[in-house]
Design a protein that fits this description.
The structure is a single chain. The protein is α+β, with helices and mostly antiparallel strands. The protein has a single domain, classed as Gcn5-related N-acetyltransferase (GNAT) (Aminopeptidase). It contains four helices and seven strands, in the order βααβββαβαββ. A seven-stranded mixed sheet has the order 1-2-3-4-5-7-6, sandwiched between helices. A hairpin with a 2-residue loop joins strand 2 and strand 3. Helix 1 packs across helix 2. The longest helix has 15 residues. The radius of gyration is 15 Å and the shape is globular. The site of coenzyme A (COA) has 20 residues, from strand 4, helix 3, strand 5 and helix 4.
């Protein structure tokens, strides 16, 4: 299975929302707890300008994963720093989709002149940490027990890639 990787368009927002909501409800990868509405994700999508790509992976015409480089902070001096999010529909995980999206979004970020990409990864998400290391992300540090989801206290690892 080789997914097509392309820039997301507004029509993709319902599928992006569905994939994110699956992760909200079944994983500790995101610290959101309540599912998002398509309307709120449309606003999220609109906030992604030229230097904040959102890409999707498509298999047989269906979106099976997405990645974004979102604004890290509205404070202007952070303008060249972004935060990465990456979510693959559960049945399509462990088939190379994450790697393809990561490759593509980092190329876009570099082309856009960004300087630094931050990922916040929940403790226990060893697959995500492994994937980030493969792409040259380095450990910044760990925030202890800053999350509480499904009755479990969760650490957050911060990883960073520089262009
Ligand atoms: C983490 C995630 C994005 C990885 O994407 P993916 O498409 O499943 O990963 P890939 O198939 O591209 O594999 C990437 C690497 O992880 C490994 N991997 C993936 N799933 C694995 C699994 N279930 N068990 C062991 N290793 C696994 C792959 O073998 C590969 O490593 P390799 O190149 O050394 O073989 C995806 O699993 C996901 O969406 N998880 C839930 C949400 C999440 O955790 N997002 C990240 C938030 S920081």
């Amino acid at each position: 299975m080789i997914p097509e990787i392309r820039k997301a368009v507004p029509l993709d927002v319902p599928a992006i929302t569905e994939i994110y909501n699956e992760a909200i409800l079944t994983t500790t990868a995101t610290f959101d707890i309540k599912p998002k509405t398509v309307a709120s994700q449309r606003n999220w999508f609109k906030d992604h300008g030229k230097r904040n790509p959102v890409l999707v992976a498509v298999v047989d015409g269906k979106v099976v994963g997405w990645v974004s480089l979102s604004e890290y902070s509205a404070r202007c001096a952070y303008a060249d720093t972004v935060e990465l999010s990456l979510y693959i529909k559960e049945v399509f995980r462990n088939q190379g989709v994450g790697k393809r999206l990561m490759t593509a979004v980092l190329a876009e970020g570099q082309k856009a002149g960004l300087h630094s990409v931050i990922s916040r990864i929940a403790g226990g998400n060893d697959i995500s940490i492994h994937l980030h290391k493969q792409f040259g992300f380095q450990d910044v540090g760990m925030m202890k027990e800053v999350g509480n989801k499904f009755g479990k206290l969760l650490d957050v690892y911060i990883m960073q890639k520089m262009f």
